[in-house]
Amino acid sequence: MAQNNIPYKIYLEESEMPTTWYNVRADMKKKPAPLLNPGTGQPMTAEELGQVFCEELVAQELDNDTRLVPIPDEIRDFYKMYRPSPLVRAYCLEEKLGTPAKIYYKFEGNNTSGSHKLNSAIAQAYYAKNQGLKGVTTETGAGQWGTALSMACAYLGLDCKVFMVKVSYEQKPFRREVMRTYGASVTPSPSMETNVGKAINAQFPGTTGSLGCAISEAVEAAVSTPGYRYVLGSVLNQVLLHQSVIGVETKIALDKYGITPDIIIGCAGGGSNLGGLISPFMGEKLRGEKNYRIIAVEPASCPSLTRGVYAYDFCDTGKVCPLAKMYTLGSSFIPAPNHAGGLRYHGMSSILSELYDEGMMEAVAVPQTSVFEAAEYFARVEGILPAPESSHAIRVAIDEALKCKETGEEKTIVFGLTGTGYFDMVAYEKYHDGKMDDYIPTDEELAKYRAALPQIG
Amino acid sequence: MAQNNIPYKIYLEESEMPTTWYNVRADMKKKPAPLLNPGTGQPMTAEELGQVFCEELVAQELDNDTRLVPIPDEIRDFYKMYRPSPLVRAYCLEEKLGTPAKIYYKFEGNNTSGSHKLNSAIAQAYYAKNQGLKGVTTETGAGQWGTALSMACAYLGLDCKVFMVKVSYEQKPFRREVMRTYGASVTPSPSMETNVGKAINAQFPGTTGSLGCAISEAVEAAVSTPGYRYVLGSVLNQVLLHQSVIGVETKIALDKYGITPDIIIGCAGGGSNLGGLISPFMGEKLRGEKNYRIIAVEPASCPSLTRGVYAYDFCDTGKVCPLAKMYTLGSSFIPAPNHAGGLRYHGMSSILSELYDEGMMEAVAVPQTSVFEAAEYFARVEGILPAPESSHAIRVAIDEALKCKETGEEKTIVFGLTGTGYFDMVAYEKYHDGKMDDYIPTDEELAKYRAALPQIG
Fold first, then answer.
1. For chain B, which residues score pLDDT lower than 50?
2. Structure confidence by residue, pLDDT tens digits, B39-70
3. What is the ipTM of this complex?
4. Is B126 exposed, middle or buried (CB count within 10 Å of its CB: 0-12, 13-18, 19+)?
5. Are B301 and B451 in contact (CB under 8 A)?
6. Interface residue ranges in chain B relative to chain A, Cβ cutoff 8 Å
7. What CATH number corresponds to the domain at position B49?
8. Same domain for B291 and B187?
9. In this structure, are A147 and A281 located in the same domain?
C-alpha cells in the first residue's frame, strides 16, 4: 500500500467530485424489505408514498436496481459550496497513540449545519422545488437535520416548517436561532397545531416530546397542507443514496493515493452517515471484490443493532408512517434522559439492517462516558471539537488503533467524522464536571418495548 | 483579468502553502511608532519586553526590516491541520445581488476556534514552548482568541490560563466550556487573583469587566508567575506578522488564477485579521507596484479609526502595559452594552494606524443592525453563518458590489471572512426579535475619554 507523502488533508479538485450517487441496493442480492402500508399490510405503492414524499424521491426510494444515480447539476453546484469535504490523515492522533495503524477520517462538519445532513437536505429540497411545491415539513431532535434543511430551503426559496422535539427546543435555543436565521419556522413538539400533537399532549401532559412524536406531527402537517410534502433526514433508502456522496468522495480520494482501507467505521443512529460512507465499499464487498471490515457504532443507551430485533415496526410514535422492516427497539422506546448525544432513534435503516442481518457488517455499542473521553482526547490532538454522535466512531477507531499497537499490525482505518459539537457544550460540561452517567437499558426494559411491536412480516 | 473557470473554492496544495510570513513593516518608509515605557517615556527595550513576552516574539515585535520571515516547520505542520483555508468565489452572492462585480472571500472559520486567531496562537505557543516555558496567560472577550490559544497549548502540552471578561464568562458558558475541553483554566475578570483585579473590583463593585481590564490581569499573572509569559491575540506587530499567512495564501491563490483585486476589505478591531489579510498587497502598494483600494471596517459603536485620535495611549485599563501609538478612543472607552459583536478594543494596531494616517487605506464605520442584516443575507445565500465581526466586512463588500451594479463596473472585491457565529446566537436572536439597537457615541462622550489620554509623543 502506497502511503508515503500523504498530505494532512486530501481535497479533491472540483473536477474530481462525484457526478453520481452510489445506490448500494443494486449490489444486494436480497433487497431491503419494502415499506408496508400499516392498514393493508401490503407494500407501499408509489402513489401512496407520493402523498407524503415528493415524486422523484419516491422513485429513488423504490429503485433497488440503478447502481449509479446521476446527481443533478443544480445539486452539484450547491455541493460545491461546501464540498468536497476533506479526507484527513490523522497523523497527530497516530503519533499520540503510538500506533502503527494509519488512520483517516472523512470530515463532514465544515458547513453551517455542522454535519453531513446537508448532503440529503439539498437533494430533497431540490426535488420538492422541482415538483413545484411551496414548502416542506420535517422534525428535528438535536437540530442538525433541521438546520441543514433550513439552509437548503433558504437557498432554493422554499418554505421550511420544523417540528423540534420540545426538550431540545428549550435546551438548545441557539440551534433554533440558527434555523430562524435561515428563515425556517420552528415549532416545539408535541404542539397544539396537529391532531397527533394534541392527542399526545392530552395523553401525556407536560411531555417534552420525542423524535417519533415530532415525525408524526411533521407528516400530518405535510399531508394536510396543500403544496407541502414531508422530508426525513435519515433511515430511508433515498437518504442513504444522497449520503453516498460521502463514500464516493472518500473512495476517489483513497484511490488517488493507492490506499485500501482494512476497517471502515461509522456511528449509526438511523444510518444516514454510515450508510453513505460505506456504500461504494460495501458494493465491492457484496460483489466479492474486496473484504473490508465494516463496523457500525451505536450508543449503549440506544442499541438497536446490538440488542434490537429484526422485524417490521412503526417509524413514528403516532403510527401515521408506513411500517419498515429494521433492527428496532420498538417505536415507543426513548433513550434515558441522561443520554446526551444524538443517535436516539429506535430503529435502523432497512438497508443497513439487512446487511447486518446477512453478516456483511459488525456492530458495537459503546457507553457515553467512554465516547466523551474519546471526544476530548481527539479534540486536543486533532484540533476538531467533534459532535457526540461522531465521537462514537472516534471511540472505536481509537480502540482498533490500540489493538494494532498491541499486535504491531499496520492496518488502515477509515472513519466518518460526521460533524462538530459546538451546540453540544452542555453535554461536554456535564462530562467535565463528572456529572455524566452511563445508562444501559436492562433486558426487562427492552422486552417491554419489544412486546409492543406490530405482528407483521 | 482571467476569471473564467474559477472553482467555487480555491484550495492550495500542501506544497503551495506559504513557507514565510510577510512583514509589511519592511516596506514602510515611516515605521510604526515604537512601544514606550510608561515610566520613562523611552522606547521599550528587548530586555524590558522580555519580562512580559517570549524572547523570539520580542525579536519579531522589534524587527522592522526582515520582509520574509521563515515559518518554523513545527508551526507549518500545525497549519496543515486546518490550513490552507479556502478562497471562495461568492458566485451565489454575486447572482443574488445582480452585480457585475467578482467577489471572493478568504474564509478562516473552518477550525474549532472558529476564527483566524489560531494562526497566531500556535506561533506564540510554539515560541513559548521552545523557550522552555511552563505556560502562558492571556485575556479573552468574545472568546475566539482564548479558544485558539487553548487549542494551541493543548497541542504543545503548555499550561494556558485565560482571563475572560466577566460578562462573556457568564453569558457565553459554551465558549468557556470549549476552552475547558482543551484543558485551559478560565477565570472571570476582574478576579480576586491579581492585585489589579482586586483594585478594580474594589473601585467598581459588581463590574462585569472589560478587555482592557482582563489584559491587565493576564499581564500581572504572567510576570508574577515563574515560567510564564503573556500572549496577546491582536494589536501587536508580531500578531500581524503571524496573521500574514492569510494574505500570503490569498495572494498565491489569486496569482494562480491571474486575478488582481481592485478592492480588499477587512473588519478591524485591534487589526489582526485586516493587517494579516492585506500585508503582501500593502507591500506592493507601498512599493508603488500596485494600487489596491484597501478598506478597514469598524463598528460605529467603537470607531477608533474613523473617530479616534492618533496618539500614544495605554493598551490596558490597569496601565501595566507599554504605551502604544495608535488611533485610539482612550483606554477607558468601553462600547455601549448593546454592542453585540467583538471589535470592541479602544485602539488599533500601530502598523495599521500609521498606514491609515499616511492615507494608504480607508476606514468605514457601520451600525450593527446593518451588519446583522448583511450577516443574515450572506448566511442564506452563501450558506456560512458568519461571526458578527466578519459581517462588518460582508456589509461593506455588499455595498461596494451594489455600487458596481449601478455603475456597471466589473470590479474584483476580496474580503476577509474571519470566522463563524455559532457562539453568537444570542445576538442573532436579538436581531431577529427586533431588539437590537444601534448606538453611536456622541462627540461629547468621545471627548471625555480623549481628555484622559496620556500626554506623550
1. 1-2
2. 899 999 999 999 999 999 999 999 999 999 99
3. 0.94
4. buried
5. no
6. 7-9, 11, 13-14, 80-82, 92, 110-112, 114, 151, 154-155, 173-174, 177-178, 180-183, 376, 379-385, 420, 422-423, 425-426, 428-429, 432
7. 3.40.50.1100
8. no
9. no
Q: Which of A177, A188, A184 is nearest to A136 (CA)?
A: A184
This prediction has a pTM of: 0.96
B197/B221 same-domain check: yes
Q: What is the DSSP letter of B43?
A: B
Question: What pLDDT is stored for residue A2 in this prediction?
Answer: 44
Q: How far apart are the C-alpha atoms of A301 and A317, rounded to whole Å?
A: 19
Select the residue of B82, B183, B425 nearest A177 (Cβ to Cβ). Answer: B425
Burial of B437 (0-12, 13-18, 19+ CB in 10 A): middle
Shortest distance, CA B81 to any CA of chain A (angstroms): 6
Task: Please name the member of B177, B385, B423 whose beta carbon is closest to the beta carbon of A112.
Answer: B385
More confident residue, A4 or B36: B36
**Run of H or E residues at A213:** helix A211-223
Q: What's the rounded Cα separation, in Å, for the pair A147 and A122?
A: 11
Distance, in Å, from the CA atom of A394 to the CA atom of B188, rounded to the nearest integer, reads 33
DSSP B252-284: HHHHHTT---SEEEEE-SSSHHHHHHHHHHHHH
Q: Are residues B212 and B308 in the same domain?
A: no
Nearest to B355 by CA among B278, B250, B454, B260: B278
- Predicted confidence (pLDDT) per residue in A99-154, tens digit: 999 999 999 999 999 999 999 999 999 999 999 999 999 999 889 999 999 999 99
| pLDDT at position A347 | 95
